[in-house]
């Protein structure tokens, strides 16, 4: 190595004088323009370390270790001690320094553990406190010594010596003595910890900080799982097994669920406060198994039905939450579905309370929905409550169809009661909500065509008699049904509204045409036979005034629509009559049949039943109903002799001129005849005929597409396509009918195969 220095008195590395060049620079050997270098050479002999250096340093460090462990002043500054360690490491004496540190740690661990072992301490809590103090002192001393031997520790960490750090060495020697010469200490510590936890479980307040420090000590020593966790889990299993058996017998389900929830919260808090995080899963599982899993059957059998009946939402939420922890929701859902089916079947099959069936089902559905959303819906984000939603659907579909056709009829009549004028005063929003609720029951009905028949029947009465509370609500309901079942389902219902709208326009034109004629005010609804229910034809001899009005309207209508046929449905007509009584003029709102009877008394003061029958030409059943409503009701327009609640052939009638009603318009209600079994049978017969037509159409549609099919495949295809319940035997009859009508034929080689005939 060479270097140059500036200055007049500088010399070269060889000691020869230098000369200055003309430009002020000197050069080596006096050569002009060349700089002279400075050469540094190593010692000819390497410096030696005193032989007693290592011995003195180690003695000093050993003494320092002893003093630190004895809690005495070292007498030498920590900086000086650190230098001793550094010098030993630099001069390749690190192994000796490490040996001194390890020996000191080993001696100290042996001493403190023997001291603990020799103490006769019966109280586990006191022993834990002594162990905690001993361990704290040992760790503090180990850290102090590590700071002194830090140079050695870092050298080892960088690969310069032993692989273990000095802290690990301190822990290892303590662990070796704990597992070797002082095993009883470990056993006492574990028993003390178990006692501490059990006391806390029994409600006693303990020193959680102490437990946490001792458990951290076991974890640091690497004996936590083997020495404590396994024993602790076994003890917890036994504890919760006994407690579960006792509490499940002594308490009701509600209190037992609260106890289980409280225990789980306590164990979770215990894990968070002083137990190792790795223990949480096994501990919680142990608690769940002992308190919940072993008693699921008892909980569901003993108290689930009561919780549902009493609508205990919070207890049901608690039950759902507990069972969700151990994949027990399947069993809960099974109990839930069983309960719903039992309750629903009892409601549907209670024929004595058919009138209240829909209200009871809606009340049940509201309560069930609240349970699902509030009690079983906590984990809705992960879809775990889908099983309960599906369970509700399965249950309602099962029991609402267990009594064929009746629920469909009652739901249609329930909706009719809500849409009919005169029903309880509901706001538009309340009416919409009510209809939506009824529609939820409609969704579960399999035979929706039965509902359609009865709904159409009730809708026709509301439209023809002007009894709809709201046309907007009527149209809204049609749209709801259309959204549920498609346009084909509601095409006839929509056609009914179109007929009413067209009739309004026809009557407007009729009145304009005859506006100068002094005719009686009349309103006619012209309805299409295919869209409306079929009505029985009832003959009646109309008074001349009404007969003339009918003839005038027919002439007007057929003049505008040639080729059409009008049939008067007298059973659906109603009139408003003006009548003079002793108390003054009154308006009577009556049916057409009642009107015909009352108008007979314009010419006669008193008439017998036989005379009325001859002059009206009405059927006996209809005549007696009309007379009963006029002469036997609360408001009696006619007086009957003799007085009785029934109409007999020898009765006579006259106008009740003494009628004294404060209302000007009097509504005379017709006697409502309940739908007889025969009429219901006829209605269902029409449904069956419609279904036959749909089955025939489906068979032809399938066979036209497939050309040839076996009997089993054809039945399978039909079952999938038809939207109402049917039997294979009924389908077979329709297939036979189509074969007779030459739509299909049997295959000549295989009688179980059908071929389509174009």
UniProtKB/TrEMBL annotation:
Nucleotidyltransferase as UniProt keyword: no
Composition bias type Basic and acidic residues, residue spans: 1-11
Highest taxon above the source species: Eukaryota
Keyword Transcription regulation appears in the UniProt entry: no
Region Disordered: start-end pairs: 1-52
Keywords of this entry: Ubl conjugation
Ranges of residues in domain Cullin family profile: 406-631
GO cellular component, one term: cullin-RING ubiquitin ligase complex
Similarity remark: Belongs to the cullin family.
Name used for this protein in its record: Cullin repeat-like-containing domain
């Amino acid at each position: 190595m060479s270097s140059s220095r500036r200055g007049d008195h500088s010399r070269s590395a060889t000691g020869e004088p230098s000369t200055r060049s003309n430009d002020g620079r000197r050069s080596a050997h006096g050569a002009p323009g060349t700089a002279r270098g400075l050469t540094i050479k190593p010692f000819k002999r390497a410096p030696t370390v005193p032989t007693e250096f290592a011995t003195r340093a180690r003695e000093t460090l050993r003494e320092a270790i002893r003093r630190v462990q004895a809690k005495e002043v070292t007498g030498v500054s920590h900086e000086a001690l650190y230098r001793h360690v550094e010098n030993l490491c630099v001069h390749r004496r690190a192994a000796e320094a490490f040996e001194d540190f390890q020996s000191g740690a080993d001696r100290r661990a042996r001493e403190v553990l023997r001291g603990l072992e020799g103490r006769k301490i019966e109280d586990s809590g006191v022993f834990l406190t002594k162990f905690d103090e001993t361990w704290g002192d040992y760790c503090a001393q180990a850290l102090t010594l590590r700071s002194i031997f830090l140079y050695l520790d870092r050298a080892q960490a960088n690969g310069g010596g032993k692989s273990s750090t000095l802290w690990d060495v301190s822990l290892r020697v303590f662990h070796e003595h704990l597992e070797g010469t002082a095993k009883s200490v470990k056993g006492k510590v574990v028993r003390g910890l178990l006692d501490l936890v059990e006391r806390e479980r029994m409600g006693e307040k303990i020193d959680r900080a102490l437990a946490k420090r001792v458990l951290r000590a076991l974890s640091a020593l690497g004996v936590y799982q083997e020495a404590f966790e396994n024993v602790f889990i076994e003890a917890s299993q036994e504890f919760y097994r006994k407690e579960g058996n006792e509490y499940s017998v002594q308490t009701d389900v509600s209190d037992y669920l609260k106890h289980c929830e409280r225990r789980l919260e306590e164990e979770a808090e215990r894990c968070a406060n002083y137990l190792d995080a790795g223990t949480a899963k096994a501990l919680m599982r142990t608690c769940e198994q002992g308190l919940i899993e072993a008693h699921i059957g008892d909980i569901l059998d003993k108290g689930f039905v009561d919780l549902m009946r009493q609508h205990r939402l919070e207890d049901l939420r608690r039950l759902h939450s507990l069972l969700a922890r151990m994949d027990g929701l399947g069993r809960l859902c099974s109990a839930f579905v069983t309960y719903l089916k039992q309750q629903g079947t009892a409601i549907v099959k209670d024929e004595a309370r058919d009138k209240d069936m829909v209200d009871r089902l809606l009340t049940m559905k509201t309560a069930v929905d609240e349970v699902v959303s509030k009690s079983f819906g906590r984990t809705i984000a992960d879809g775990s409550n889908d099983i309960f939603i599906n369970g509700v659907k399965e249950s309602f579909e099962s029991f609402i169809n267990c009594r064929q056709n009746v629920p469909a009829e009652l739901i249609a009549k329930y909706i009719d009661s809500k849409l009919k004028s005169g029903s309880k005063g509901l706001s538009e929003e309340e009416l919409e909500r009510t209809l939506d609720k009824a529609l939820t029951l409609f969704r579960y009905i399999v035979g929706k065509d039965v509902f359609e028949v009865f709904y159409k029947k009730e809708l026709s009465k509301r439209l023809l008699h002007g009894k709809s509370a709201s046309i907007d609500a009527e149209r809204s309901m049609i749209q709801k049904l259309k959204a549920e079942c498609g346009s084909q389902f509601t095409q006839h219902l929509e056609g009914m509204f179109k007929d009413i709208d067209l009739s309004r326009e026809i009557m407007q034109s009729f009145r304009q045409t005859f506006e100068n004629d002094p005719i009686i005010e009349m309103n006619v609804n012209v309805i299409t036979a295919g869209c409306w229910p079929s009505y029985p034809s009832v003959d009646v001899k109309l008074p001349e005034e009404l007969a003339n009005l009918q003839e005038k309207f027919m002439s007007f209508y057929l003049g505008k629509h040639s080729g059409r046929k009008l049939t008067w449905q007298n059973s659906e007509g109603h009139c408003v009559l003006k009548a003079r009584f002793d108390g003054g003029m009154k308006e009577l709102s009556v049916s057409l049949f009642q009107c015909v009877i009352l108008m007979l008394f314009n010419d006669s003061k008193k008439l017998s039943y036989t005379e009325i029958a001859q002059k009206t030409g009405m059927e006996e059943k209809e005549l007696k109903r009309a007379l009963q409503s006029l002469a036997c009701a609360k408001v009696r327009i006619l007086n009957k002799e003799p007085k009785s609640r029934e109409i007999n052939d020898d009765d006579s009638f006259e106008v009740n001129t003494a009628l004294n009603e404060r209302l000007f318009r009097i509504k005379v209600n017709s006697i409502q005849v309940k739908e007889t079994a025969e009429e219901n049978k006829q209605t269902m017969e029409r449904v069956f005929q419609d279904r036959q037509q749909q089955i025939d159409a489906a068979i032809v549609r399938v066979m036209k597409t497939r050309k040839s099919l076996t009997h089993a495949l054809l039945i399978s295809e039909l079952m999938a396509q038809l939207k109402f319940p049917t039997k294979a035997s009924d389908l077979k009859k329709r297939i036979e009918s189509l074969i007779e009508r030459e739509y299909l034929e049997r295959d000549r080689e295989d009688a179980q195969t059908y071929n389509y005939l174009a």
